[in-house]
Fold this sequence. Notes:
Helices cover 50% and strands 13% of the residues. By secondary structure, the protein is an alpha/beta fold. α2 packs across α3.
Amino acid sequence: MEKMISPLQAVTNQIAATQNYCAGYNKYLNDFLIPLYVSTNYFRDVEMNKLTKASPMENFQSYMDLMSYNYELSNRSLIASMRVVSEYLKKELPLATEAFLNTLLNKEGENLESFTARQAEMAELVTKTYPKIISDIEPEYGFHFERGKNIKFAETDRFIVYQILPVDDKVKVREDGKPVLIIPPYVLGANILGFLPGENRSYTHCFANLGIPTYIRIMKDISSTPALQVMTCENDTLDTQFFCEKIKSRHGKPVTLNGYCQGGFMAVCNILSGKLDGLIDALITCVAPMDGTKSKGLKHFLASLPPRFRDLAYGTKTLPNGNKVGDGDLMGWVYKLKSIEVESPLVVFFRDMMMLSPKNGKTVKVSKTAAALNYWLRNERNDLPLSITEMSFASYTVPVTKDGTLPVKLFGQELNFKRIKEKGLKWLICYGKHDDLVETDTALAPLEYVDAEISAFPKGHVAIATSWSDPGSACALHTRFGPENYRGPVRFQLDLDIEIEQSRKKNEKSQVSSQKPEEPLNG
């Protein structure tokens, strides 16, 4: 009887595994295809207008070029998918053969029943358990300003600035300390910079937890904020100017402007406009694209796209009130297409399944860090004003000139990197050595025109905000690290404050000496 049950159980396990495989892959496939369906609607609307403005031959050639482009993408996706399936089979087929022989010959070791049970468990982990773990991390992930634990400091029609308070109530903010204003990326959202505060993994709290007056600029909900929907880059600059004035007035010291990713490029443009003169004296940019044309991956991706289709209109969403914004989900999808070899649905599905595969008979425990990262990847995409979309697009399609002039203007004036040197601003550029989103050359482009301090962090695009925001990590943000003795952004900020205090004391001492009455001459 037992010999009959075992094969039946193996078949039952295999059926359950197959069902979960199909359901799981279908979920990954839908996550990838939904932006495609959305983009198809945008494409149709734009093309209905363009078709009448070009000759039939031009239209035909453009569509043939687009078909060739799609064919190349499909080939890359297929090759990558075949590779990951091959890796999976290479790992599991020998185990399946061994399990079959163990069952047939009644030998010790994993038999077909336990092998298929493990397959069913692995598929269920990916399909049901893993999504639940990701969903359950939400209360611990990000800032949660609705809880009132941080102070709403200032507001405009488009942004709110919050003062981020230390996690530990025993740590007091130094009111006379040098303040920092953090500018998050538009598309990726601010919560990645408040990753897991309770686990001591939060970029923003790295500053606040050391008593530094720490502020972050939060974009309002664009779907319900018309002023943000139609915002210009000049509005962005003037709002930043307003916030810096209030922060400097409160603490009596110039502000350090700190931009992360896209926020770093915007921060630099704000500074180069001249509107922040006298308000800030230092700049920190982290994994910020300063000249997108130096990005080999994205440059090749855009260059391969037929010229007719290099148009932001294909990614523009029309809101119910008629205002147009850049579709954040679609922009995130474009980066997936750029890295299709690692982002195609089958590759991601099998990668997650192998990651969750039980090791030595024990179920793999998913860390909070992995859960929070996946929560961010699945949920944090914001639409953005067209002016910001256009600015970013220009930075990736038009190179900085030989004299350091950027491909964008503010208030009708050209922006040039050399102005930072002219104003004597201190600049720390942080980048990821293995960042495939903002590559090293893209982040370090300003070094051709100005002197700036650099800090190279291991890993990729968000590691500074996740891995290295842990105070106990090898590259903790408040320390110097590596053979090069790089300074983390928090260490840079602390040292700036020390320099200001030393300079103030020196000036006070000098004034006292100059006011001291002279000794009377003898005789």
